[in-house]
Here is the input.
Amino acid sequence: MTRILSYNILVGGARRIDYIERMIRTVDPDVVGLVEANNLEVVQELARRLDMEYRTNAAPDGSWRTSIALLSRLPIVQSTVYASQGLITRPLLEVTLLEAHGEKLTAFVTHLVASFSHGRGNDTTRRKEVREILRIMRANHGPHVLMGDFNALAPGDTLKASTLLRYLVEMDQQQQQGLHNGERDGHPSLNGVVPPPLRFLNPLLCLVPRNRLLRALFDEAGSLYAPRGTIGLLNAAGYVDCFRYVNPRAWGFTCPAEAPAGRIDYLFANPALATRLSACKVVSGDEQVHGGDASDHLPVMVEFGVGIETTFRPYKDELVEAGETAGETL
Here is the structure.
């Protein structure tokens, strides 16, 4: 069995490294894909504490710094960085690993662009990035997984837009009042989501979380507005959305960790690997650490067994989120 964790640790994670380590240890993964791993010292320290090797997407000549990393207790066979200028915003990291049963497994780690305030959530740019990533992965015919922060919703997934709005308003208020003392650096803001021509509506948007009817209308409008073409491209290419396959009805929200509103962190398995998929769940922490203390994202864990047929079962403790009834669909 090989257990893989995908985790956006928020702008390097230096101040939260102890919490991040605890979050990782709650599931004892063999491989960890790190997004927003902007601080090399944090990557190195996590690798040391977890007794893992590491690779990053930093340029050997120093022309760009690390922003993505992979930690592994499995032997690393080789690694490659793809920096397709103008096609992908952050260089894609590819790492080939040797599993315990002797088979090679390749992990790709990515972080697609956000910039949600640009035209329809900037989905056009993310689709361009995914097309280039698919072109790169096409050369790999063996088992491989693509993981990371995709900043995109999957077709059919729920978005709690009013929950996200409430979180953004609260973050902005804390920023204005100087309450976070740098602890909220890197968290999204209302202006980071609302397009410039519509920012005159911000005062009205601040009223939405206070009214039940407005929240319901905003949730409906948000789900209709949110583009889903990026993840649709991966689905169409035959990649298996591990969480959704194993958990067809659970929301699986990963962000923001303190007020989960949508699922934007994924692990995709190619068909050669998907036949081994045995479990996948969002990790919220345990009695020692809460996900919101470590990052603004919750990590996602997947397990791949050996010799497993395509009989996927959800985690017994992976319940449909509160408020969803048997008659509701994703």
In short: The first strand starts at residue 2 and ends at 8. The chain has two domains: 2-158+226-304, 161-220. The longest helix spans residues 161-177.
